[in-house]
Structure formats: structure tokens, C-alpha cells
Write a structure and sequence with these properties.
Blueprint (H helix, E strand, L loop, with lengths): L1 H26 L9 E7 L5 E7 L8 H10 L1 H12 L6 E6 L2 H23 L5
Parallel strand pairs: 2-3
Antiparallel strand pairs: 1-2
Amino acid sequence: MGRVRGINQKRIAERLHLSIASLISNGMRDDRLKLVTVTHVNVDRELEHANVWVCAPSLGEDRSEKVLSALTGAAGFVRHELASRLKLRRIPQLHFHWDFTPDKAAQIEKIIDGISVSHEDAHGNRDY
């Protein structure tokens, strides 16, 4: 029974992921949600709570608080829309979180680029 439940959790998480991403990009007209990407959705075993991780390009400012505020405020609307789209017995409570993974990946990439540039400067050629 545990394996079936785990598969069901994954399927529901995937369906929620796709539907929430579609809603954010097409169904919500809040300027704070421009270019927001849903990166991951995790549903608990009882299907009562869903953690939704999102990120967005900075556009010159820290947008995490604005985006999370907009999504938290619209959680009821999102759940209502999900209920009509997904036909699930129960739509989980949505908890939105900021995903720092893309930011950290960009920082690591900068560090790696800095290392390769300093290596080029020291040797005058590209020797990897």
C-alpha cells in the first residue's frame, strides 16, 4: 500500500505543478508574478498540504517577498481553480516557498568563471 500511495503522491504533485505553473503564467494578472517559475511541488502523505517552490529572475530587485506575498494572497483563488481543473477529492492547502537553487547555481557559475579567468591570466592561455 505504501508504494501505491507514494506513486499517487508523485502523480498529484506533478499535476499540481503543471496546473499551478499554468495558472501563474496564464490565469493571474498580477504584475508581481511576471516570469515566476514553479520549480517543485511536494505533497504530504495525507494529501492535505502541498509545498510549492517558486523562483523568478531578480529584474534588478529582490522579488522573493513580493512574489510570495502575491501567491499567498491568491492561494484561495489558486485552490478554487485547481479544484475545477483537477477533479481531485481534496485540494491540498498550498504553502509557497522561495527556491534559492537558481540563485546559488548562478553564484557557483560566477565562481567557476572567475577561477577559469584567473587561470587564463596566470598562464596566458586556456589550459583546462
